[in-house]
Design brief:
The chain is of the alpha/beta class. The strands form eight sheets. It has a 23-stranded mixed sheet, with no helix packed on it. It binds 2-acetamido-2-deoxy-beta-D-glucopyranose (12 copies). One 2-acetamido-2-deoxy-beta-D-glucopyranose (NAG) binds next to strand 42.
Length: about 750
């Protein structure tokens, strides 16, 4: 080697080194700018970026920052960093950036043009944010992974979005507001393996290319047409196919047999008809088959018997009927069997399904089963969720149901069951949900029910139960944590089945605070995560990320013949927020101890409770609904009720001996005379009736209300508009909205609960 060469080489290295250093500095500058930008928009909660030290020589050791061999920043992970505010506009300053993860934050606004200059990006994860506008990343031709799921992107994704997908292998654009025809969309993406388009508004037909994917999810869109025979050619690679909740119709072609690797197949919520193709029976590894809410023909192919790996089978809402087919009893791997909303009448025992050794969940609700409840249920070794509601079962609840130690949900509601609630129910210490509403059950509520220490959702409404509420009720739901802990350890296991969350809707006291949002249309995904969260004790908060929160427990005994006094012991109940005892024959005084419960809703309407309304009720600051109408309350309406600042529904109508004044200011003044009907001794001091006002009420005219009716009307209009606006948002965006709502609520509720402990 000559000296010159040496010198040149040396110079070269120096140059490269200098370049490296300066490049590195450039990167550092961008990151410092980024840090400042994030800090400016996030004054309180900050992620790890807050600890990035500018004094360090290189950013490569900063948390979330990764560098390549040249010391240039190649990856940036700011996921779950509590970031809110707009998208940072200078990522393109990081010239070597390959991997950018901003998932699980609250970034708002639109994508900046700058992102399209990050030409080296191979992995981009923006999922779980609030980013809207058009999804335009047409210059990012090197992308291999793109995940923008759970955002608010809208508009069509046309050719210029995916014309560039040469190297894309994972595409997840689920849960946005994207639209457009999917035909041809993926044609040029020859490396694609995982595609999730679910929960958007895509139209068009399912096309052939899907057979070369490993995963295709287009659930909850507006796809139409039928599925052609050649959709599943030989060599089909699909492992996971979800086309549920679209407008597909026609036969499912038998060529599905070519997709011999399938483990998950969901076609629920479409208009498929004809026979379930026998070809499904030759897919050896099929674990989940979800065909609910279609019009499949009654005859079931016997080949399904060969699906020995099948764990989850849902053929609900299809018009299957007669006897439960015998081959279900041969699917020994089944853990979930969901047959609800069909026309089955018989065959529960003869089909052998009660002997399936691994069955965790059996949902036979909304069929036409009749006769006595099967006692054979008692020998089921794995069953946790037993749903026999809305059939025509009659006779008694067999005491042997109390033997199923692992049972967590027992739903026998809306049948024609009679006799008593067996005391053996008290042996079910894992029980979380007991639904016996809408039967003809009589006798007393057994005191042993107090041994159900996990029971949080207890509904015995609309029966003929009589006698006193046992004081032992205080033990119900005292400590569900062992059950929750077990469920948290297990992988997801409760999956109620297709679409409408039918069962969960039955368990939830719809229309009450804390639960009313569930009424708005729920997507299937939300429904599943809701169920999952309930069973794991995380409350009904979505998304799952932040703070676990206690479930709102409820007791509903409405519409029975219960008598005697409400036991003061009830105050010892833990974890309950709704107490619905309306429409019974409860008498005596309302025990003041009830104020120690963390109630959000108390309905004791339509009983014969007398004496005074305990002033301690004013301490129940979480109360949003308080209905004491149609009782015999007397004495003065306690002024402490005015402290219930969250109260939005209040009714003391038809307590003819109730006296005193309704204050003209404070919370009670927000209710109109509908809350005080039929209380002749009560003086109402609060309403500006305009011309209807009697002139003798001097106090009222002085105490003011120089209220201008027109102004007030305008206020009402404005308030209605605001409420409507938020309600609309809440329905559309109930994830994030409810999340905030519940987080707030949970904080209060648990704070209260902890304060009491
Ligand atoms: C980004 O860089 C440009 C210059 O390249 C600068 O003007 C701008 O302030 C930077 N910051 C943001 C947040 O865009
Ligand atoms: C994107 O981030 C989310 C949340 O952090 C994560 O669940 C998801 O798996 C990531 N996506 C990909 C494709 O890795
Ligand atoms: C997408 O962005 C590129 C580059 O920023 C621009 O040229 C193109 O017009 C945009 N396309 C759409 C549909 O907005
Ligand atoms: C696929 O690529 C070809 C050739 O590059 C192009 O003409 C065509 O428009 C692309 N199709 C789509 C759907 O992007
Ligand atoms: C989006 O889908 C991909 C591919 O199935 C998956 O890896 C990723 O975890 C999904 N993202 C989220 C946020 O679930
Ligand atoms: C598998 O696909 C081929 C065409 O590729 C078709 O001829 C054959 O019938 C399919 N198999 C089944 C079981 O339908
Ligand atoms: C199940 O599979 C076996 C062997 O693969 C076959 O002989 C039998 O006919 C199949 N049963 C049905 C009902 O298709
Ligand atoms: C059950 O059968 C009745 C009459 O036979 C019919 O009206 C009803 O639609 C059927 N229900 C289902 C879910 O198919
Ligand atoms: C339910 O069963 C009762 C007898 O137990 C019978 O009178 C009634 O007709 C049945 N109802 C239906 C809808 O089948
Ligand atoms: C319930 O427990 C009690 C007391 O441990 C026992 O006597 C009774 O047989 C049990 N009932 C059932 C159905 O297991
Ligand atoms: C069940 O409840 C009864 C009556 O309340 C009580 O005597 C008994 O000790 C309880 N059994 C268990 C196992 O807790
Ligand atoms: C309380 O129960 C009564 C009687 O069942 C019912 O009419 C009323 O609507 C309930 N009140 C509220 C606020 O839900």
């Amino acid at each position: 080697m000559s000296r010159l060469q040496h010198l040149l080489e040396l110079m070269c290295s120096v140059l490269i080194f200098a370049e490296l250093i300066s490049g590195n500095n450039d990167d550092m500058e961008v990151l410092i700018e980024l840090k400042g930008f994030l800090q400016a928009h996030n004054q309180i909660n900050r992620g790890a970026y807050d600890g990035w030290l500018e004094s360090e020589a290189s950013p490569c050791n900063w948390q979330g920052v990764g560098c390549d061999m040249n010391g240039r920043v190649s990856s940036l992970d700011l996921s779950s960093s509590s970031i809110s505010g707009p998208f940072f506009g200078n990522f393109s300053g990081l010239k070597s950036l390959i991997h950018l993860d901003l998932s699980d934050n609250s970034i708002i606004g639109e994508l900046p043009v700058d992102l399209n200059r990050c030409l080296g990006l191979k992995h981009l994860n923006l999922s779980y944010n609030l980013i809207g506008g058009v999804l335009n990343i047409s210059s990012l031709t090197k992308l291999r992974t793109l995940d923008v799921s759970r955002n608010r992107f809208e508009g069509g994704i046309g050719m210029n979005f995916l014309a560039t997908c040469d190297e894309l292998t994972i595409l997840n654009i689920s849960s946005n507001n994207l639209r457009g025809n999917i035909v041809g969309l993926l044609d040029n993406c020859s490396w694609l393996e995982y595609v999730d388009l679910s929960l958007n508004h895509f139209t068009g037909q399912v096309t052939q290319g899907i057979a070369s994917l490993i995963q295709f999810n287009a659930a909850e869109n507006a796809l139409t047409g039928s599925i052609a025979l050649d959709m599943f050619p030989e060599g089909c690679k699909l492992l996971f196919l979800d086309l549920s909740s679209n407008y597909l119709f026609g036969n499912l072609p038998n060529s599905i047999a070519n997709c011999s690797s399938l483990t998950y197949l969901s076609l629920s919520g479409n208009g498929f008809d004809g026979q379930i193709p026998p070809g499904i029976g030759v897919i050896p590894g099929l674990q989940k088959l979800i065909l609910g809410s279609n019009n499949f023909a009654r005859e079931m192919p016997f080949s399904l018997m060969n699906c020995t790996a099948l764990k989850y089978l849902d053929i609900s809402n299809n018009g299957f009927g007669g006897e439960v087919q015998g081959f279900f009893g041969k699917l020994e791997s089944l853990t979930h069997l969901i047959l609800h909303s069909n026309n089955y009448t018989d065959g529960i025992v003869s089909s052998g399904i009660l002997r399936l050794p691994k069955l965790i969940m059996l949902d036979l609700s909304l069929n036409r089963f009749f006769g006595k409840l099967p006692t054979e249920v008692a020998i089921m070794t794995s069953i946790k969720y037993l749903v026999l509601a809305e059939n025509n079962f009659s006779g008694q609840i067999p005491p042997v149901y109390g033997q199923i130690a692992q049972l967590q949900i027992l739903d026998l509601s809306y049948n024609h069951l009679s006799g008593g609630v067996p005391a053996d129910i008290g042996n079910l210490s894992s029980l979380l949900v007991l639904m016996l509403a809408g039967n003809q059950l009589s006798g007393e509520i057994p005191k042993e029910i107090g041994n159900c220490t996990s029971l949080l959702w207890l509904n015995l409404a609309e029966n003929k139960l009589s006698g006193q509420i046992p004081p032992e009720i205080a033990g119900v739901g005292r400590d569900p944590s062992p059950t929750f802990a077990r469920n948290q350890k297990d992988a997801a296991q409760l999956e109620i089945g297709t679409r409408k969350c039918l069962s969960v809707m039955r368990w939830i006291p719809l229309g009450y605070p804390g639960f009313n949002y569930v009424e708005s249309e729920m997507s299937w995904k939300d429904c599943r995560s809701l169920e999952d969260r309930i069973l794991k004790g995380y409350g009904i908060v979505t998304p799952p990320s932040v703070q676990p929160c206690i479930i709102l427990g409820y007791v509903r005994f409405s519409g029975n013949l219960l008598s005697g006094q409400i036991p003061p012991m009830i105050s010892a109940m833990r974890n309950f927020n709704l107490l619905l005892l309306d429409d019974n024959l409860l008498a005596g005084v309302l025990p003041s101890e009830i104020s120690q419960m963390s109630l959000v809703v108390l309905n004791i309407s339509r009983n014969i409770i007398s004496g005074e309304i305990p002033s301690e009720i004013g301490q129940m600051v979480l109360l949003e609904t308080l209905d004491m109408s149609f009782n015999n309350f007397s004495n003065e309406l306690p002024s402490s009720l005015n402290q219930l600042y969250k109260l939005s529904k209040f009714n003391v109508s038809y307590n003819s001996l109730l006296s005193g004044n309704v204050p003209s200011t404070g919370q009670l003044s927000t209710f109109d005379e509908q809350s005080f009907l039929g209380d002749p001794l009560l003086s109402l001091h609060f309403i500006d009736h305009g011309p209807c006002l009697e002139s003798n009420n001097d106090e009222l005219s002085t105490e003011g209300t120089e209220k201008d009716p027109a102004k007030e009307e305008a206020m009402v209009l404005i308030i209605s508009f605001i409420v409507f606006f938020f309600a609309t948002i809440a329905i559309r965006e109930h994830d994030s909205f409810m999340y905030v709502y519940y987080t707030m609520k949970c904080r209060c509720a648990s704070a209260k609960i902890f304060a009491e402990l």
